[in-house]
Amino acid sequence: MDHALDLLADRPLVVLTGAGLSTDSGIPDYRGPHAPARMPMTYGEFVSGPEARRRYWARSHIGWGRMRRAEPNPGHHAVARLDPELLITQNVDGLHEAAGTRRMIALHGRIAEVVCLGCHATTTRGALHQRLGELNPGWAERHAEVEVRPDGDVALEETDGFVVPGCEGCGGILKPDVVFFGENVPPARVQRCYDAVDALAATDGALLVAGSSLTVMSGLRFVKRAAKAGTPVVIANRGATRGDPLATHRLDVGCSEFLAALLEARGLRAA
Predict the structure, then answer these.
(1) All residues at 6 or more sequence positions from 262 whose CB lies less than 8 Å from its CB, including other chains
(2) Dihedral, CA atoms, 78, 80, 86, 90, nearest 10 degrees?
(3) CB contact set of 240 (below 8 Å; sequence gap of 6+)
(4) By CB atoms within 10 Å of each CB, which of 202, 206, 223, 238 scores lowest?
(5) Judging by DSSP bridges, how do beta strands 174-178 and 233-236 pair with one another?
(6) Is the sign of the CA dihedral 139, 113, 220, 208 positive or negative?
(7) Closest listed residue to residue 268, CA positions, set 77, 55, 73
(8) Which residue from 12, 11, 6, 27 is spatially nearest to 255, judged by alpha carbons?
(9) Distance between CA 44 and CA 183 in Å, rounded?
(10) What angle is formed at CA 204 by the lines to CA 21 and CA 190, rounded to 5 degrees?
(11) Cα dist from 65 to 111, 132, 152, 176, 206, whole Å
(12) Burial class of residue 133 in the structure, from the number of CB atoms within 10 Å of its CB (0-12 exposed, 13-18 middle, 19+ buried)
Protein backbone atom coordinates (compact mmCIF):
# COMPACT_ATOMS: atom_id res chain seq x y z
CA MET A 1 0.00 0.00 0.00
CA ASP A 2 2.87 2.38 0.77
CA HIS A 3 3.96 2.65 -2.87
CA ALA A 4 0.42 3.54 -3.97
CA LEU A 5 0.08 6.13 -1.22
CA ASP A 6 3.43 7.68 -2.16
CA LEU A 7 2.27 7.92 -5.77
CA LEU A 8 -0.98 9.66 -4.81
CA ALA A 9 0.36 11.82 -1.99
CA ASP A 10 0.75 15.08 -3.89
CA ARG A 11 -0.84 14.63 -7.32
CA PRO A 12 -4.09 16.09 -8.67
CA LEU A 13 -6.70 13.34 -8.59
CA VAL A 14 -9.73 12.16 -10.46
CA VAL A 15 -11.57 9.56 -8.39
CA LEU A 16 -13.86 6.89 -9.83
CA THR A 17 -16.07 5.07 -7.31
CA GLY A 18 -18.41 2.10 -7.46
CA ALA A 19 -20.75 0.10 -5.25
CA GLY A 20 -17.91 -1.15 -3.04
CA LEU A 21 -17.61 2.32 -1.52
CA SER A 22 -21.17 2.17 -0.17
CA THR A 23 -21.06 -1.28 1.44
CA ASP A 24 -19.97 0.28 4.75
CA SER A 25 -23.23 2.25 4.62
CA GLY A 26 -25.23 -0.99 4.49
CA ILE A 27 -25.87 -0.99 0.73
CA PRO A 28 -24.80 -4.31 -0.85
CA ASP A 29 -22.54 -4.37 -3.88
CA TYR A 30 -22.89 -6.18 -7.19
CA ARG A 31 -19.73 -8.17 -7.63
CA GLY A 32 -17.79 -8.21 -4.37
CA PRO A 33 -16.18 -11.45 -3.20
CA HIS A 34 -19.34 -12.61 -1.39
CA ALA A 35 -22.01 -10.95 -3.53
CA PRO A 36 -24.59 -13.30 -5.08
CA ALA A 37 -25.29 -13.22 -8.81
CA ARG A 38 -27.69 -10.36 -9.60
CA MET A 39 -29.80 -9.65 -12.67
CA PRO A 40 -30.89 -5.98 -12.65
CA MET A 41 -33.88 -5.04 -14.78
CA THR A 42 -32.91 -3.78 -18.22
CA TYR A 43 -34.40 -0.73 -19.89
CA GLY A 44 -35.98 -2.92 -22.54
CA GLU A 45 -37.68 -5.01 -19.89
CA PHE A 46 -38.88 -1.92 -18.00
CA VAL A 47 -40.63 -0.45 -21.04
CA SER A 48 -41.96 -3.82 -22.26
CA GLY A 49 -45.27 -3.51 -20.40
CA PRO A 50 -47.17 -2.78 -17.18
CA GLU A 51 -46.29 -6.13 -15.57
CA ALA A 52 -42.56 -5.47 -15.68
CA ARG A 53 -43.01 -1.95 -14.32
CA ARG A 54 -45.24 -3.23 -11.51
CA ARG A 55 -42.55 -5.73 -10.59
CA TYR A 56 -39.90 -3.00 -10.61
CA TRP A 57 -41.82 -0.43 -8.57
CA ALA A 58 -43.17 -2.96 -6.06
CA ARG A 59 -39.62 -3.99 -5.23
CA SER A 60 -38.15 -0.52 -5.46
CA HIS A 61 -40.81 0.98 -3.18
CA ILE A 62 -39.60 -1.24 -0.35
CA GLY A 63 -35.91 -0.84 -1.15
CA TRP A 64 -36.08 2.94 -1.40
CA GLY A 65 -37.76 3.13 1.97
CA ARG A 66 -34.60 1.59 3.40
CA MET A 67 -31.92 3.07 1.14
CA ARG A 68 -33.00 6.65 1.79
CA ARG A 69 -32.03 6.16 5.44
CA ALA A 70 -28.43 5.19 4.56
CA GLU A 71 -25.75 7.61 5.74
CA PRO A 72 -22.37 8.45 4.19
CA ASN A 73 -19.58 6.31 5.63
CA PRO A 74 -15.95 7.30 6.32
CA GLY A 75 -15.05 6.49 2.71
CA HIS A 76 -17.56 9.02 1.35
CA HIS A 77 -16.36 11.64 3.81
CA ALA A 78 -12.74 10.92 2.89
CA VAL A 79 -13.45 11.47 -0.81
CA ALA A 80 -15.13 14.78 0.01
CA ARG A 81 -12.11 15.77 2.10
CA LEU A 82 -9.74 14.86 -0.74
CA ASP A 83 -11.70 17.26 -2.96
CA PRO A 84 -10.58 15.69 -6.27
CA GLU A 85 -10.54 17.57 -9.55
CA LEU A 86 -13.58 15.44 -10.35
CA LEU A 87 -15.36 12.57 -8.65
CA ILE A 88 -16.97 10.16 -11.11
CA THR A 89 -19.35 7.87 -9.28
CA GLN A 90 -21.19 4.92 -10.75
CA ASN A 91 -23.41 4.86 -7.65
CA VAL A 92 -26.95 6.20 -7.67
CA ASP A 93 -27.41 6.34 -3.87
CA GLY A 94 -26.58 10.05 -3.42
CA LEU A 95 -24.18 9.42 -0.54
CA HIS A 96 -21.27 11.34 -2.09
CA GLU A 97 -23.53 14.38 -2.39
CA ALA A 98 -24.64 13.94 1.21
CA ALA A 99 -20.99 13.85 2.30
CA GLY A 100 -20.38 17.20 0.63
CA THR A 101 -18.32 16.33 -2.44
CA ARG A 102 -18.10 19.49 -4.54
CA ARG A 103 -17.07 18.51 -8.07
CA MET A 104 -18.73 15.33 -9.20
CA ILE A 105 -20.59 13.49 -11.92
CA ALA A 106 -23.24 10.93 -10.98
CA LEU A 107 -22.53 8.87 -14.09
CA HIS A 108 -25.66 6.73 -13.83
CA GLY A 109 -27.97 9.37 -12.35
CA ARG A 110 -29.62 9.48 -8.93
CA ILE A 111 -32.22 7.12 -7.53
CA ALA A 112 -33.72 10.05 -5.59
CA GLU A 113 -35.15 11.54 -8.80
CA VAL A 114 -37.93 10.31 -11.10
CA VAL A 115 -38.50 11.18 -14.76
CA CYS A 116 -41.60 10.83 -16.94
CA LEU A 117 -40.85 9.05 -20.21
CA GLY A 118 -43.71 10.99 -21.84
CA CYS A 119 -43.31 14.66 -20.97
CA HIS A 120 -39.81 14.34 -19.41
CA ALA A 121 -40.84 16.16 -16.24
CA THR A 122 -38.71 15.30 -13.22
CA THR A 123 -39.97 14.92 -9.66
CA THR A 124 -38.52 13.74 -6.39
CA ARG A 125 -38.47 10.11 -5.39
CA GLY A 126 -39.79 11.15 -2.00
CA ALA A 127 -42.99 12.46 -3.58
CA LEU A 128 -43.50 9.26 -5.57
CA HIS A 129 -42.74 7.15 -2.49
CA GLN A 130 -45.59 8.89 -0.70
CA ARG A 131 -47.97 8.28 -3.63
CA LEU A 132 -47.00 4.62 -3.80
CA GLY A 133 -47.54 4.25 -0.06
CA GLU A 134 -51.01 5.76 -0.29
CA LEU A 135 -51.97 3.52 -3.23
CA ASN A 136 -50.50 0.39 -1.63
CA PRO A 137 -51.14 0.63 2.12
CA GLY A 138 -49.25 -1.90 4.21
CA TRP A 139 -47.13 -3.18 1.30
CA ALA A 140 -43.77 -2.33 2.83
CA GLU A 141 -44.78 -3.67 6.23
CA ARG A 142 -45.90 -7.01 4.77
CA HIS A 143 -42.54 -7.51 3.10
CA ALA A 144 -40.27 -6.11 5.79
CA GLU A 145 -37.87 -9.07 5.81
CA VAL A 146 -36.90 -9.23 2.12
CA GLU A 147 -33.26 -8.71 1.11
CA VAL A 148 -32.13 -5.30 -0.15
CA ARG A 149 -30.22 -5.15 -3.44
CA PRO A 150 -27.70 -2.57 -4.78
CA ASP A 151 -30.07 -0.74 -7.11
CA GLY A 152 -32.37 0.23 -4.25
CA ASP A 153 -34.87 -2.57 -4.76
CA VAL A 154 -35.39 -5.89 -2.96
CA ALA A 155 -35.51 -9.61 -3.75
CA LEU A 156 -39.29 -9.93 -3.98
CA GLU A 157 -40.99 -12.35 -6.37
CA GLU A 158 -44.71 -11.85 -5.65
CA THR A 159 -45.81 -8.38 -6.84
CA ASP A 160 -49.40 -9.00 -7.99
CA GLY A 161 -51.80 -6.29 -6.92
CA PHE A 162 -49.24 -3.51 -6.57
CA VAL A 163 -50.62 -0.26 -8.01
CA VAL A 164 -48.27 1.92 -10.07
CA PRO A 165 -49.35 5.53 -10.77
CA GLY A 166 -48.58 7.50 -13.90
CA CYS A 167 -47.14 10.98 -14.26
CA GLU A 168 -49.31 13.55 -12.48
CA GLY A 169 -48.88 15.91 -15.42
CA CYS A 170 -49.50 13.73 -18.48
CA GLY A 171 -50.24 10.24 -17.20
CA GLY A 172 -47.03 8.90 -18.78
CA ILE A 173 -44.69 6.17 -17.59
CA LEU A 174 -42.55 7.03 -14.57
CA LYS A 175 -38.98 5.77 -14.37
CA PRO A 176 -36.22 6.41 -11.84
CA ASP A 177 -33.85 8.94 -13.35
CA VAL A 178 -30.99 6.46 -13.54
CA VAL A 179 -29.25 4.71 -16.41
CA PHE A 180 -30.60 1.17 -16.68
CA PHE A 181 -28.68 -1.66 -18.29
CA GLY A 182 -29.34 -1.25 -22.01
CA GLU A 183 -29.36 2.56 -21.82
CA ASN A 184 -26.49 4.89 -22.67
CA VAL A 185 -24.99 7.42 -20.30
CA PRO A 186 -25.77 10.93 -21.65
CA PRO A 187 -22.87 11.99 -23.91
CA ALA A 188 -22.31 15.31 -22.10
CA ARG A 189 -21.69 13.44 -18.85
CA VAL A 190 -19.19 11.12 -20.47
CA GLN A 191 -17.37 14.01 -22.15
CA ARG A 192 -16.95 15.91 -18.90
CA CYS A 193 -15.38 12.82 -17.38
CA TYR A 194 -13.10 12.32 -20.37
CA ASP A 195 -12.00 15.96 -20.16
CA ALA A 196 -11.10 15.58 -16.48
CA VAL A 197 -9.18 12.35 -17.10
CA ASP A 198 -7.37 13.87 -20.09
CA ALA A 199 -6.33 16.89 -18.01
CA LEU A 200 -4.46 14.62 -15.61
CA ALA A 201 -1.77 13.96 -18.22
CA ALA A 202 -0.89 17.66 -18.34
CA THR A 203 -0.85 18.12 -14.56
CA ASP A 204 1.03 14.96 -13.55
CA GLY A 205 -2.16 13.71 -11.96
CA ALA A 206 -3.51 10.24 -11.26
CA LEU A 207 -6.75 8.30 -11.52
CA LEU A 208 -7.89 6.53 -8.36
CA VAL A 209 -10.53 3.80 -8.62
CA ALA A 210 -12.23 2.90 -5.32
CA GLY A 211 -14.77 0.12 -4.89
CA SER A 212 -15.48 -0.80 -8.52
CA SER A 213 -14.96 -4.11 -10.30
CA LEU A 214 -14.97 -2.17 -13.59
CA THR A 215 -17.00 -5.00 -15.09
CA VAL A 216 -19.00 -2.72 -17.38
CA MET A 217 -17.45 -0.37 -19.92
CA SER A 218 -19.25 2.59 -18.33
CA GLY A 219 -16.43 2.92 -15.80
CA LEU A 220 -13.66 0.89 -17.43
CA ARG A 221 -13.42 3.34 -20.35
CA PHE A 222 -11.94 6.00 -18.06
CA VAL A 223 -9.25 3.60 -16.84
CA LYS A 224 -8.44 2.72 -20.45
CA ARG A 225 -8.31 6.42 -21.33
CA ALA A 226 -5.94 7.24 -18.47
CA ALA A 227 -3.65 4.28 -19.10
CA LYS A 228 -3.40 5.09 -22.82
CA ALA A 229 -2.27 8.62 -21.95
CA GLY A 230 0.36 7.32 -19.52
CA THR A 231 -1.52 8.59 -16.47
CA PRO A 232 -0.95 6.49 -13.33
CA VAL A 233 -3.95 4.41 -12.26
CA VAL A 234 -4.41 3.10 -8.72
CA ILE A 235 -7.21 0.60 -8.04
CA ALA A 236 -8.39 -0.14 -4.49
CA ASN A 237 -11.08 -2.82 -4.49
CA ARG A 238 -12.03 -6.05 -2.75
CA GLY A 239 -11.65 -8.64 -5.49
CA ALA A 240 -10.32 -8.61 -9.04
CA THR A 241 -11.31 -5.93 -11.57
CA ARG A 242 -11.26 -5.71 -15.36
CA GLY A 243 -8.86 -2.80 -15.03
CA ASP A 244 -6.17 -4.72 -13.14
CA PRO A 245 -3.89 -5.21 -16.18
CA LEU A 246 -3.87 -1.43 -16.70
CA ALA A 247 -3.21 -0.43 -13.09
CA THR A 248 0.03 1.08 -11.86
CA HIS A 249 -0.86 -0.22 -8.40
CA ARG A 250 -3.62 -2.67 -7.52
CA LEU A 251 -4.68 -3.13 -3.89
CA ASP A 252 -7.11 -5.68 -2.46
CA VAL A 253 -8.24 -3.48 0.39
CA GLY A 254 -11.36 -1.89 1.84
CA CYS A 255 -12.22 1.55 0.50
CA SER A 256 -12.64 3.27 3.85
CA GLU A 257 -9.32 1.87 5.06
CA PHE A 258 -7.39 2.94 2.00
CA LEU A 259 -8.97 6.38 1.75
CA ALA A 260 -8.24 7.09 5.41
CA ALA A 261 -4.59 6.23 4.77
CA LEU A 262 -4.59 8.47 1.70
CA LEU A 263 -5.90 11.41 3.72
CA GLU A 264 -3.01 10.95 6.13
CA ALA A 265 -0.50 10.68 3.26
CA ARG A 266 -1.77 13.99 1.89
CA GLY A 267 -1.61 15.67 5.29
CA LEU A 268 -5.38 15.94 5.66
CA ARG A 269 -7.57 15.20 8.63
CA ALA A 270 -10.70 13.11 8.39
CA ALA A 271 -13.91 15.12 8.62
Answers:
(1) 5, 8, 78, 82, 208
(2) 70
(3) 213
(4) 202
(5) unpaired
(6) negative
(7) 77
(8) 27
(9) 9
(10) 50
(11) 12, 11, 9, 14, 37
(12) middle
Contact by Cβ (8 Å): 58, 74: no
Using alpha carbons only, give the angle 223, 228, 233 rounded to the nearest 5 degrees: 40
Written as one letter, the residue type at 103 is R
- 17 DSSP assignment: E
- Say if CB 3 and CB 248 are below 8 A apart: no
CA distances from 209 to 35, 112, 186, 226 (A): 19, 24, 21, 11
| CA 94 – CA 137 distance, rounded (Å) | 27
Q: Which among 96, 108, 129, 249 is annotated as catalytic?
A: 108
As beta bridge partners, residue 210 has 17, 236
Confidence (pLDDT) at 142? 79
Establish whether 108 is a catalytic residue.
yes
Cα angle for residues 92, 164, 151 (degrees, 5° grid): 20
Express each pLDDT in 92-114 by its tens digit. 999 999 999 999 999 999 999 99
Is the sign of the CA dihedral 210, 111, 148, 56 positive or negative?
Answer: negative
Q: What is the pLDDT of residues 167-216, one digit of tens each?
A: 999 999 999 999 998 899 999 999 999 999 999 999 999 999 999 999 99
Q: 58: helix, coil or strand? A: helix
Residues 6+ positions from 64 with CB-CB distance below 8 Å: 111, 125, 129, 152, 153
For residues 233 and 247, the answer to whether their CB atoms sit within 8 Å is yes
116 DSSP β-pair partners: 174
Amino acid at 193: C
